[in-house]
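Posted in: Protein Modeling Q&A

I'm a second-year student putting together a small comparison for a lab meeting, and my supervisor asked me to include a predicted structure for Efflux transporter periplasmic adaptor subunit. I've never done this before, so apologies if this is the wrong subforum. The sequence is pasted below exactly as I got it from our records. If anyone can share the structure token output, I'd also love a short note on what stands out.
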Amino acid sequence: MNASAELLKELRIERGKAPSTPPPSRRGLWIGLAVAAAVLLAAVVAWLVLGGEKAPEVRTAPVVAISGAGGASASVLDASGYIVARRMATVSAKVTGRVKEVLIEEGMRVEEGQVLARLDPIDADAQRALAASQVSAAHSQADSVRAQLVDAEANARRLSSLVGQQLVSRAQYEQAVAQRDALRAQLVTAQRNAQVAGDQLRIAGQGVDNTIVRAPFSGIVTSKAAQPGEIVSPLATGGYTRTGIGTIVDMESLEVEVEVGESYIGRVQPKMPVEIVLNAYPDWRIPGEVIAIIPAADRGKATVKVRVALKEKDARIVPDMGVRVSFLEQAPEPGEQKPQGVRVPAAAIVQRGGSDVAFVLGNEDTVEQRAVKPGIAMGQDRQVLSGLTAGETVVLDVPETLADGDRVRLAGAEGQ
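Accepted answer (user: helix_wrangler)
Welcome! Here is the predicted structure, written out as tokens:
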């Protein structure tokens, strides 16, 4: 009985006393913070994705006015080429022989007729000595015949007076006359032989002179090909035989040779002004002019050669240098209408709804769509007759989704 009363007493609830509660847990707080971070991250990702689509990254370029007479001309075509010399010669001896001495070095300036090298003249000297002896022999023979002729003529005159007096027979007189005429013929032959011997002596002397190599024109020695002791020959005989002493270049004859594609050769005209930039000196701009368009095409490369004159001469310009040539617009003739419109890169003009448009960069990096009227192609640029003003900035490589009023992000401006 007492045990049951105690159990009931323990189960009784005391209303005046607040029930005890366990301490709050931190698990819910961490869960809330994680949810908030996930929501914030999703918002940032969505802003980046949607914002990137609304503000694409683009390149820009300025709108440039097309210059008239007296201004800087625009390039209508760019091409690569090389410096070449119109007067360049590998100098060799006219005869085969052993080099005795070489009097040139690379970089040396030589004048026309200056001695460059000498060959061993022993054979040529022997030929000249033999020819001189033959000349002496021919003259001696002619002198001997002349002396005999004098005696024969005197004998014929004497017999001519005696045959009239019938002191000698006519047969003796006729024999004397025949001998005189024969000696006259022999004298003519001897004189001609002496002349031939003299000609042979001059030829032998020329052979000696051929052992001396001289400069054919004034210029700079660019290579030295032979050394003393080597055999040189004007013919390519193979082996260790040289075909030249050295190479001379006339620096005053330097010009530019450019290969222009067949599709663009129509833009090039004789007397057209050009601007030449050497690959070795990219900041040096050399004025030039088109000399001629070679009337022949390269079938393999589909190019046509163009000769360009250098209007400035300088020691830094040497043959075989690589160059970049910009063909410029022709200066307008007096009374001719000046070029109209502006010039922009061709990548700035796109098609929208069947019309040519360009996107002009405005305030706060927003773009404005403009209808434009394109003109002629000017190299990598395009003439625009209306719709744009010099000094404005246009978007290049316009994205297909770009529309009027959209905001863009600048990747960099393209200057002139």
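A couple of things worth pointing out for your meeting: Residues 288 and 310 are 5 Å apart (CA to CA). The first helix runs from residue 2 to 11.
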